[in-house]
Amino acid sequence: MTAAHLARAQAYLDARLHDPGLTLLAASRDLGFSVRYLHQLFREVDSTPRTWLYDQRLRRARTMLSRRTAPALTITEVAARVGFKDPSHFSRAFKALYGFSPAEFRRREHANA
């Protein structure tokens, strides 16, 4: 049952990556879980709900930045679409995880393809 609850929680959070106002309290209420239980579920994958959501947002942004769609989204638009309110915070978080700013990452990805 725990694995099914974790999968349901991950799907819920994944569907709401774009919402910068998403709270764990609202998520747990919508899922019918307590906040404490939500944290217990994510311990099963050595994470927390917030960390997992943050990582998923950055992964989604990475995917969006690698695409060659026209017109290309600005870094600010990508940040907003994955739930970051502040593009500067997004850029710092992206660089901390991937070693490149979002703009540098996009240039490198498109130059290599």
Describe the structure.
The chain has seven helices and no strands. With 113 residues, it is mainly alpha-helical. The protein has one domain (2-112): Orthogonal Bundle (Arc Repressor Mutant, subunit A), CATH 1.10.10.
Keyword list:
single chain, 113 residues, mainly alpha, Arc Repressor Mutant, subunit A
SSE diagram, text form:
Blueprint: H1 2-15, H2 24-31, H3 35-43, H4 49-66, H5 75-81, H6 87-98, H7 102-112
The CATH superfamily bears the name Homeodomain-like
Cα-based radius of gyration, to the nearest Å: 16 Å
Looking at the structure, the CATH topology is Arc Repressor Mutant, subunit A
The SSE order reads HHHHHHH
* Broad CATH class: Mainly Alpha
Q: What is the overall number of helices?
A: 7
Distance between the termini: 43 Å
Tertiary shape: elongated
Class inferred from helices and paired strands: mainly alpha
CATH A-level architecture: Orthogonal Bundle
Strand content: under 5%
Number of strands: 0
| Average pLDDT | 93
Helix content: 55-70%
The total number of structural domains is 1
In short:
The protein has helices spanning 2-15, 24-31, 35-43, 49-66, 75-81, 87-98, 102-112.
